[in-house]
Each structure stands twice: as C-alpha cells, then as structure tokens.
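Many introductory courses stop at the sequence. We go one step further.
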Amino acid sequence: MAESAQEMEIAMKRLLNTGEGADLTLVCRGKTWRVHSSYLWPRSSWFKAACKGGFKEGETQQIELPEEEPSMVYRMLQHLYMQTYIVNLGQDEFWSLNDSWAKTRLHVHAQMYSLGDKYDLPGLKKEAARRFNEDVKISGDSKCETLTLLSVVPTVYEITLDSDRGLRDIVVRQIFQRYATASKHFVEELDTALEVRQFARDIIVLHRKKPPTKHAALIREMYWIWHYCVPRLQVVTVISPPTTAAFRARLLATGISLARLVWLFSVVHGVLALVSILKGLFEMLLGQSRGSRYDWARTW
C-alpha cells in the first residue's frame, strides 16, 4: 500500500513537471507551468470560475498570477497533484531573491495557508495549518528557536483575516506557554512582536481565559465550605453551644466530615503559603530580568 502511494506520488510529480496532456497554462512572474484543469477546478471554486465562468482565462486557457511568488505557486501545484508540498528553502528551481521573506519553514507554511484561503483550497489550508503546528512545537528555548517563533508573528497577522483563527491561535498559544519560562532574549524579542496590536490583544484575551489550574476544584470546594457550611455551623454554635456529639451531628448535616474539613483547610493553607513564597521569588527575578516594562503582565 505504501509503495503504491509512493509510486503514485512520483508519477504525479512527473506529470506536473512535464505537463504532458495539459490543457491550461499558469503564468507567474515569467515562470510558466502547463497544468491539467481537471486537477484544479474540481478542488477550487476560484479555478473553476476562471476556467468555466466565461472569463478571458477560460477562452485563452491561460491564467496569470502576477501577485504571487513562483516558488509558492509551484508548492500550491505540488499540493494539487501530490497532496503535499515540499519545503526546501533556497534550493528549489523556482527560488528567487524575492523569496527572502521566507526566513523559516513557518513563514512558508503561513504563506501556503494564505494561498489556500485566497484560491479556495480547503485541503491546502488544512495541510499548511497542520505542518505549521508541527514545526512550531520546537523544544527548548534557544536563541534560534525563539527568533523563529517570534519573527513569524507579523507575517501571520498580516496575511490572515481577523476572523480566521487557524494560525493565530497556534502562535498565541505557543508564545503564551513559553512566556512562563521565558529567557531574557525571549522577552527582548517579544517587544517587536507586541507591536502587532492584534497579537498583543490576543495575548491578553488568552491570559484572561486561560484554563483553571489543577487546584481550582479544591479552591471552589473551599469557597463552598466557607460560604455555606461554616456560617451555618457558626449560627447553630452561637445559639446553643453544642456538645462534641451534637457538633459532629450538625457538621455531618452540612454534608462534610470533620476530618475532610481539617484536611482541606490544611492543604489550602499549605498551597497558599507556597504560592506566596513563589510569587515573591518570581517578582524579584522578574524585576531583575525584565524591568518595569513588564509590570503590566504581572497585574493581569
């Protein structure tokens, strides 16, 4: 099965490169491809309209894409023929100096995502988002990896609509997760990314909507005990000081055992003490490494 798929991919690549039996021409900045309309318009309403919508392109059987980069158009054709595209920065035959913006694989995936949206290729958008998500999950926090992640922020927000959260959510989530353990150079480069106003807003929104911690359930239970069980116990105790047996009975009537009440209070007390210590250390380190520019981050 794997061999058949590989053979099919090789055959389709050869068909794309030779243009044998093609009935349509794509032109992009001096580069020309002879392609098969039957591979384009069934998967794209944009190409279907160009080929069968009564436009000039349908009559001349030639479609010009002057706004795109040849290397990106070739990758789009690779996806249409082979169900994937190849990222080999600076080494494919259609690479030019105009592609200097494509600093990393993430930039290429972002541009492919944009082409998928522009030419109505849902499969291309899905593949680009998947590969972007895979490549953005880089381990560690080296200088190179940090620059890669932060440098793609302006590109992602420039080529996608505000309503399209496909790549934006991935970028925001990854940067937000790294911020908790950020190194100094990460914070310095973050300044540039935050100049993209919509990105800065998304970071704030994510922070306010971040999922509860593992102690959230315990805290909610303590809140319920404090505001529901304890006042009832205080009232009945003040009205008629009970014996030990009566107190236990009244405590059980509130739905919680004495042992559990003591345990919960001791756990919460320990957690709060630890949080207080860590908060002090964190604020001290944060003040030394980041300066007052990031005071707003600690007040969210």
